[in-house]
Design brief:
Layout (H helix, E strand, L loop, with lengths): L2 E6 L6 H11 L4 E7 L10 H12 L6 E6 L3 H8 L3 E6 L2 H17 L4 E6 L9 H9 L10 H12 L1
Parallel strand pairs: 1-2, 1-4, 2-3, 4-5
Bound molecules: adenosine-5'-diphosphate.
Adenosine-5'-diphosphate (ADP) binds next to helix 1 and strand 4.
């Protein structure tokens, strides 16, 4: 069985992340969406909120998708979960430098785990969690960027 881990902050999940997850599910039997939590950085949403949003919008993809969170190194978590592949998304050339560094660091740590990259649809190539938070902060229309459940959570957070 081909198992892949898709790690990321998902703070919050956007249609860009969902696009990558759907592409990965065409290639892998099982996809584990891994919400990475950096104990030194406070996210906008808590880990529990991010997990809840991913769960609501992804469901279980017919039993092929699970959601986990981790404060550990991604390669350690991959080993624990029995995954040999890391899925990442590429939007534009600007993503490449960072992904290149991460891939080589991960390969040095765990030579048997390979990273696989999917390119997003053009319509999401400019989309990031940060853009979405800025739009929400200034009351912009979130409809084309995030699912309605995530839009509600963003709006509620800024109204607090
Ligand atoms: P990280 O902090 O690990 O970069 P993100 O949640 O920002 O976490 O991104 C996780 C992964 O999803 C990264 O590989 C990123 O390039 C990809 N990604 C994020 N937004 C998009 C998008 N709009 N289209 C394609 N890939 C995306």
């Amino acid at each position: 069985m081909k198992i892949a881990v898709y790690p990321g902050s998902f703070d919050p999940i956007t249609y860009g992340h969902i696009d990558i997850a759907k592409r990965a599910l065409k290639v892998f039997d099982k996809l584990i969406i891994l919400i990475t939590v950096n104990p030194n950085k406070s996210g906008f949403f808590t880990a529990a909120e991010r997990i809840d949003m991913v769960r609501q919008v992804m469901g279980d993809c017919g039993g092929r998708c699970t959601i986990e969170s981790s404060t550990d190194l991604t390669v350690h978590k991959c080993k624990e979960l029995g995954a040999n592949h890391i899925v990442r998304g590429l939007r534009a050339v600007t993503d490449f430098e960072y992904e290149f560094q991460m891939t080589h660091a991960n390969r040095t740590l765990a030579g048997d785990i390979d990273s696989v990259f999917f390119m997003t649809s053009n319509e999401y190539s400019y989309l990031s969690s940060n853009t979405v938070k800025e739009i929400a902060q200034f009351d912009g229309d979130l409809e084309t960027f995030v699912p309605p459940y995530v839009a509600e959570k963003l709006t509620a957070k800024f109204r607090k």
